[in-house]
Amino acid sequence: MDHMTESLSAEHYTATLIDHFEHPRNAGAMAGADAEAFVTNPVCGDSLRLFLRFDGERIAAASFLSSGCPAAIATSSVATELVLGRTADEAGALTRDDFAAAVGGLPKSKVHCSVLAAAAVRNAITAWRAQRGTSP
User: What is the 3-state secondary structure of 46-85?
Assistant: First the structure.
């Protein structure tokens, strides 16, 4: 076990969370995104920029740029997977608990990371709707 994995295990992170941190899915900016949102936690400094591309009402692609702790990066990564193929309404209905469960749970001190993911998804969908002139 390398030093980074050893310290991640010491934080009581799940294997799923560690995998998303070490091998983030859909990382990077998205050219031609239909919507994006930027959220930050002013207390800890974690930030997430989420990009979405739609095909009709369904999310066809999602990517992210994130900085922060392993839990912030992992929940950002898993958020891009959870929203794919969902309608705007379905994705917007995902809660912080959904994002936390998708990484196998979060320590209490890291629940704010799932809140960041949920806020970014909702804000990106709101921006997409505003751009189209539609309401929720």
Answer: CEEEEEEEEECCEEEEEEEEEECCHHHHHHHHHHHHHHCC
Amino acid at 13: Y
pLDDT tens across the length of the chain (136 residues)? 444 544 555 468 999 999 999 999 999 999 999 999 999 988 888 999 999 999 999 999 999 999 999 999 999 999 999 999 999 999 999 999 999 999 999 998 898 899 999 999 999 999 999 988 876 6
Q: Which of helix, strand or coil describes residue 132? A: helix
With H, G, I as helix, E, B as strand and everything else as coil, classify residue 36: strand
CA distance 58 to 14: 30
Query: What positions carry a catalytic annotation?
Result: 44, 113
Q: What pTM was estimated for this model as a whole?
A: 0.89
Domains and CATH numbers, the chain: 3-132 (3.90.1010.10)
Diameter of the chain measured on Cα atoms? 52
